[in-house]
Design brief:
Layout (H helix, E strand, L loop, with lengths): L3 E6 L15 E5 L4 E8 L7 E7 L10 E5 L19 H10 L6 E6 L5 H5 L10 H8 L2 E4 L2 E4 L7 H19 L9 E6 L1 H12 L6 E5 L14 H12 L7 E7 L8 H13 L7 E6 L6 H16 L2
Parallel strand pairs: 5-6, 5-9, 9-10, 10-11, 11-12
Antiparallel strand pairs: 1-2, 2-3, 3-4, 4-6, 7-8
Helix pairs in contact: 1-8, 6-7
Length: 314
Amino acid sequence: MVLSGLIINSSPDLHAQPTGKKAKSIVLNVANGTIRRFSDFSSKFVDSRNIDVWLPDGYDIKKKYAVLYMHDGQMLFDSTINWNHQEWGVDETVGRLIQENKIRDCIVVGIWNTPLRHSEYFPQKALDYLTEDEKKDVLNTTVTFGTEKKRLLNDGPISDNYLKFLVQELKPFIDSTFSTLKDPANTFIAGSSMGGLISMYAICEYPQVFGGAACLSTHWPGTFKTEDNPVPSAFIKYFRDYVPLPKNHKLYFDYGTETLDSNYKPTQLQVDKIMKLKGYTPLNWITKEFPGAAHTETAWNTRFYISVSFLLGK
């Protein structure tokens, strides 16, 4: 929903701000709840970016809230600021599910992406499963933006640093600024496309931090090469070795069948085999196919409720 009612608030009426982070924030009204935006949130690991924190109607510091971290934060709430004028409608969906008592009380942390999005979201340790020649080819993959050709992964993946930013800087800030439940059972991460990949990577790398991950339209190709691409196999091998134990974790995967999503099913089926071998059941794992669904925010908007209900359901 389009954001409105902008208020500059130099002393947020929440908790004390951690030293070294911006105390100034912007409060924005949405269809359901409110958003507190922290502009140019700084990090020693990655470039600064905006952080949008969605609070449900009736947010009360006397209560404790689960936290859902989501990538591509500028695509979640406000279609007017996006290149394709689409959004996930997170405020409407999560607010409605809370009001209907279908999920636990939670807040949503929208982490904006940057021009280094692909480098930040590409699972870095998966490169270890490639031969040196394969790794060189992947790192040298180029894409064209207008008349400019550049490396897709710039100087290489920096997803390990991106996750350090989330775990060592952003999460402590959120937990000290808002009234949250800090344990893994109440800490979740979600995204789509490359955001699906980094969500998978996050729960594998930090199973002691994240108790659940939703990976929508996971971009298993990693690049945009459709033939003789070694990346999906590397992701599968990494996932096989690092997927967390099912006892205390939940994983949601899905994919459509149109546009980019049409490339995902073969790899997802192999991931599903690993899930079964590792002991996951429908209680803690779902993979869904959506025939006819394309690779768009509109598509993710229509089915986001399924993933968030699965992760945060009562």
